[in-house]
Amino acid sequence: xxTTTRMTEVTGxxxxxxxxxxxxxxxxxxxxxxxxxxxxxxxxxxxxxEMLHDIGVTRADLHSAIGTSLLDDxxxxxxxxxxxxxxxxxxxx
Length: 93
What we know:
Layout: H1 12-44, H2 49-54, H3 59-66, H4 74-92
């Protein structure tokens, strides 16, 4: 018995539409995640400075992260700032 597998490739106009739709869905998903993370970072602003220090960030880090473009995920910037601060502390010890 022989089994034949047939692969179809989406090309032309249909392929272009499918590609565009995929990019649009990806963009919307990134925006939803960025918005959710922005709201979370805003709630961190309600914490006192000692609590922020415990998680390795400062109030200035929060302002810097929130100051990014609405198209960017502020949690990535906040994480990078906390990582740099952690490395600097480790190097000075």
